[in-house]
Amino acid sequence: MEKNIKRYESICDNDPSQNNINNLEVAKQEYELLQDYIVRGCIVRSRINWYENGEKNSKYFLNLEKTRRGKTAVRRIYDSTGKVTVNPRSLINELRDYYQTLYSNHNSEEGEEFASDFLENPNVPSLSNKSKMTCEGLLTCAECFEALKMFPNSKTPGNDKLTAKFYKTL
What is the value of pTM for the model shown? Predict the structure, then answer.
């Protein structure tokens, strides 16, 4: 966008016709719309409760977003020896090892035995036909909205960090 504006400015400097001036104005308006879109995204991600229309203090919202992002990062963790680790490389290694162990198949035989015992059990309860019909099919907007209404306003129903209050106002 900025390259387009510079290109149209140089064209207008050489040939200031009405068509070239109009092209420059259109490029500037598109750039402003893009900047407004970026600032609105920063405002939403920074979870600000107030914002006055016409305010274009994007640096404030960018800094606020950056500070809040820093609060969600893991800064220290207990390592395998029980000591607190603050070294970023050690943090990454500890987290990798934890999740690698968590999701490895070291107990696959025990899990297979449990699964076969459970699935081969004739006393496993099953759903009635009415319950099956309730569970089948796509969710409707009304069902989703009813579930959202039960959510507390300050909680986020997803991983996008947007609160339930945000979705309720849409």
Answer: 0.29
